[in-house]
Each structure stands twice: as C-alpha cells, then as structure tokens.
C-alpha cells in the first residue's frame, strides 16, 4: 500500500495491527487477477484522421491481425463514425476490442462541424453507460462497455504545423477522451524535419490549451519509462502489414526503391513506443482514466443539468434522496401553479364569453325593439289609411245613394248613353 493511503486511513482513525501469523488476504491481488482473466477485458480505440492517412493499416499493425477494412471515399457529405468489435485472445487473456474509425474526416469544404459527430459518438457511449448505471436492475458486470478509452489522433506529416481542424477537434475532445496524437506516415518526413515538427506540434497544443493524455507517473514501476515516453510525444508512426526479409528475418516493413522502413525498428519510427505504451503498459490506466475522469465529468454535468447537487446553496451536503424530495416538491408546486393559472384563464375566458353573449343578446333585444316599434308605427299608419278609405267608401256610398235618389224615374246612365250614341250617328 502506498504511504499516502496508510496516512489517509490513519487520519480516519484506523488502528494499525500486526498479524501473529498468515491469514491469507495477501492472495487478494491473485483473486483479482483470476476474476479479471475469467471476465475478460474490453478496450475501445477511436481513430481520428483524414481519409487515407493510414488508420486501418496502423490498427492492423498494432494488433498484428487483419481487421475488416473498408476504403472510404473522399466525397462523404459529412463525417461518420464506424465501429467494429472483435474478440481477441492472447495466451489466456481475452480482449474485446472495438475500433472506431472516422469516415470522411477532413473531406468536406466546410469543416466547421467536422468534430461534432465525434463528440456526439463519445457522449452517446457515456450516456448509454449512465443510463445502465441509473437503472434499478443494473447489469454492469456483463455490460459491454463502449466508452472510448483511447483516441489516436492522426496528424498529417506535413512538417509545417497542425491544421486548425486538428486543433479545434482536439480541443473539443480533450475533456471527453484520452487523446494520444500520432504523426501518421512518418516515413514520408526526414529525421530533422520530424524533430522540429514534434516540437512545433507540442508547442501549438500547449499554446491552444489542448490537454493530451500523459502517461501516468504515479506507479513507480512504470514512472521512468512513462516519463521518457511523454517526452517522445507525439509518436511518429509507420504502419504496414507487409513483411520484408531483412537479414535473415521477416519483419513488418515498407519497402521503397531506395530502402526499407522497418515498422518495429526504433531508429526508423516510434511504432514500438506507441504499442508498448498503448497496449502493454498503460491500457489499464487508459481504461481507468476514462471511467474516473472523463465519464465522471460527463456524469457530473449530466446530473447537475438534471438539477442534482451534492451541496445546498449554503454548502451543506445534501443526499440524493433530499434533492429528489426537493425536486418533487418543486415539481408539484409548479404543477399546482400551472393548474391555478389554467383555472384562472378558464374562468376569465368564461367571463369574457358571457360578456360577449350578453352584449349580443342586448344588441338583438335592441334590434327587436326597433323592429317592433317600426312594425307598430307601420301598423298604425296602415290602420289610419284603412280608416280614411273606409270613410271615403262610406261617403261615396252616401253620395251614390243620394245621386240615385235625385235621378228622374226611367233615367239610367246607360239610357242616356244610348241616346247620346244615336245622336252622334255612330250606330
Ligand atoms: N507511406 C506510408 N503509407 C502508408 C502508411 N500507412 C498506410 N499507408 C498507405 O496509405 C494508404 C491508406 O491506408 P489506410 O490504412 O487504408 O488508411 P485509412 O486512414 O484507414 O483510410 P480510410 O479508412 O479509407 O479513411 C494505403 O495505401 C497504405 O498502404 C505509412 O505509415 N506510410
Ligand atoms: Mg480505414
């Protein structure tokens, strides 16, 4: 146990005792090893780099196998991610390896959003894990962890400087994943240029505040080698699945008209350093960092977004249960408030509608009264006319009677007319 751990335990009041004989808990590390071996391991690598930069070749070279490789076109409308999972075995250790490749990275005219699908992919894996963790019935022991443990960022061997796409992407990812930058196709750059290029890249990363993964120094057994390797970053790598005869041995190499670049020769490139650091020495640290640093950050932000906190505004610790209760009360109060508001709005609407209906009724009544009075007026006028006509009729009847009385007997209006007609010669 490290001395700092002992000190921490002493602080908490633990009492050191010496054992009189062997009890057997010194087998705990062996128990852990056995358990881990039977469970198997899982490791996920994300390769980010332009189309054709050598991602697949490097993966094949690293794991000494032939993964399924699809050549990407340079005409993808946007960046996509393709994940493939393989079960590998070395001695009695099983490794479930997922290789995620960017497809179409750096091929679009507008590269502003190129990093977004990568960020989304990483977040989605964290989210899936978080959802599993938050389940009542969790099955984390046989859960296929798809969180990205290492991100190999392939830098183009231009010898100049990083592209803005590289800086922007790495900056967006450095709090989410362990970034290990590598200079791809390092056989295409001369030794002196490579040295300068490495220095330039590191200074650009520092000046832009990009945090790349540093091989850990807290474990004494690997602190020395890790310190040396941190000084070699970014690794300049060469990939090849071809074997060339060098001396009397077949080695992985790239053969050119002027010579052979041996992948595993440390004078030729940093491939061995990368393999050593990524697979042999720091694979477990990469997995641990992913869980304790990057996932923890994602989880914290997500839970805070959902309103959970460890302390109240007065910095007193609050439990999840208390936070939940407060949230529940807030929610119920909000619900009640909304209900009251809706009720008020409803009452208001009913009142408005009632007023509208009353107004319409009043208008209708007014119109009815108007029509009624006009009708009465017209009726009175008609009655007056009728009365006058009746009067006329009566007086006419009277006059007719009077006229009939005044006529001499045998005189008729017709007789007069007959006579008149005879006189006028119209017969
Ligand atoms: N000079 C040189 N060529 C390499 C190296 N690694 C790969 N290549 C070549 O580069 C070409 C593309 O390699 P891939 O490994 O398919 O590249 P990729 O990044 O996986 O390509 P996509 O998946 O299509 O984006 C092939 O012709 C490889 O032989 C290297 O280290 N040096
Ligand atoms: Mg590929």
From TrEMBL:
Bias kind Basic and acidic residues: ranges: 415-427
Region of interest called Disordered, as start-end residue ranges on this chain: 404-427
Domain Septin-type G: residue ranges: 39-305
Keyword field contains Mitochondrion: no
Domain of life from the UniProt record: Eukaryota
GO molecular function: GTP binding
Keyword list, A-Z: Coiled coil, GTP-binding, Nucleotide-binding
Keyword set includes Plastid: no
Coiled-coil blocks: 343-392
Record family assignment: Belongs to the TRAFAC class TrmE-Era-EngA-EngB-Septin-like GTPase superfamily. Septin GTPase family.
Name this protein carries in UniProt: Septin
């Amino acid at each position: 146990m490290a001395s700092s751990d002992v000190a921490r335990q002493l602080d908490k009041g633990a009492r050191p005792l010496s054992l009189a004989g062997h009890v057997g808990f010194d087998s705990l590390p062996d128990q852990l090893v056995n358990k881990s071996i039977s469970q198997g391991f899982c490791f996920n690598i994300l390769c980010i780099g332009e189309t054709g930069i050598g991602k697949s070749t490097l993966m094949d070279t690293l794991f000494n196998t032939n993964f399924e490789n699809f050549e990407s076109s340079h005409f993808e409308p946007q960046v996509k991610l393709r994940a493939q999972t393989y079960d590998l075995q070395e001695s009695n250790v099983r490794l479930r390896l997922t290789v995620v490749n960017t497809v179409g990275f750096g091929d679009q005219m507008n590269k502003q959003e190129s990093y977004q699908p990568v960020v989304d992919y990483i977040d989605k894996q964290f989210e899936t894990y978080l959802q599993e963790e938050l389940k009542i019935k969790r099955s984390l022991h046989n859960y296929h962890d798809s969180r990205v443990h290492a991100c190999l960022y392939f830098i183009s061997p231009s010898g100049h400087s990083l592209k803005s796409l590289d800086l922007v992407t790495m900056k967006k990812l450095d709090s989410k994943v362990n970034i290990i930058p590598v200079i791809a196709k390092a056989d295409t750059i001369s030794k002196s240029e490579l040295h300068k290029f490495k220095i330039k890249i590191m200074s650009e990363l520092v000046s832009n505040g990009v945090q790349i993964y540093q091989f850990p120094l807290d474990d004494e057994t690997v602190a020395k080698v890790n310190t040396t390797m941190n000084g070699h970053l970014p690794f300049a790598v060469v990939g090849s699945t071809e074997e060339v005869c060098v001396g009397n041995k077949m080695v992985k190499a790239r053969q050119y008209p002027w010579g052979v670049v041996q992948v595993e020769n440390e004078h030729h490139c940093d491939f061995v350093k990368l393999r050593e650091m990524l697979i042999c020495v720091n694979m477990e640290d990469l997995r641990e960092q992913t869980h304790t640093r990057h996932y923890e950050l994602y989880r914290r932000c997500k839970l805070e977004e959902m309103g959970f906190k460890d302390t109240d505004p007065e910095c007193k610790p609050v439990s999840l249960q208390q936070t939940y209760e407060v949230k529940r009360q807030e929610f119920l109060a909000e619900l009640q408030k909304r209900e009251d508001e809706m009720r008020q709005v409803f009452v208001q609407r009913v009142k408005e509608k009632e007023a509208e209906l009353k107004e319409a009724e009043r208008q209708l009544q007014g119109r009815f009264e108007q029509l009624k009075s006009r009708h009465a007026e017209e009726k009175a006028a008609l009655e007056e006319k009728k009365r006058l006509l009746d009067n006329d009729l009566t007086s006419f009847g009277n006059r007719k009677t009077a006229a009939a009385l005044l006529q001499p007997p045998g005189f008729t209006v017709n007789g007069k007319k007959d006579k008149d007609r005879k006189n006028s010669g119209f017969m």
